[in-house]
Write a structure and sequence with these properties.
Elements: E1 2-7, E2 18-21, H1 32-35, H2 48-54, H3 61-72, H4 75-88, E3 92-97, H5 106-113
Parallel strand pairs: 1-3, 2-3
């Protein structure tokens, strides 16, 4: 399985494979038809508290990633991670986020945990 991270606002590509929105909120101004999202597992997104804490601008990305990984170790999130692995099988899994910096977002943490 190949995992990649893209902005949800980018045009879908034929090699995206399974497209998974990994944001808790639906992206502004984007219709579901245009987004072409296959799955939206909201329970895999960072908690509201963690998201607000990180967006204050003071915490480091490394500390955010550590705390988010702890949330992902919880049973429901771990089950959903396993489900994404099974869904993707041998195809590409594209994690979609509205973040302006996907490489320093929760989507990058998920991608790493899923095997990239």
């Amino acid at each position: 399985m190949s995992v990649r991270v893209r902005r949800v606002y980018d045009r879908p590509e034929p090699d995206d494979g399974v497209r998974v929105l990994v944001d808790r909120l639906w992206p502004r101004g984007l219709s579901k038809d245009v987004a072409q999202v296959d799955e939206w597992p909201k329970a895999l997104t960072p908690s509201t508290e963690l998201r607000r804490w990180y967006h204050t601008g003071e915490p480091s990305y490394e500390e955010f990633a550590r705390r988010y990984e702890a949330e992902l170790a919880e049973p429901e999130a771990a089950r959903l991670l396993d489900g994404l692995r099974a869904t993707a099988g041998g195809t590409t899994l594209t994690l979609l986020t509205a973040s302006k910096s996907p490489e320093r977002s929760h989507a990058a943490v998920l991608a790493r945990l899923l095997g990239t």
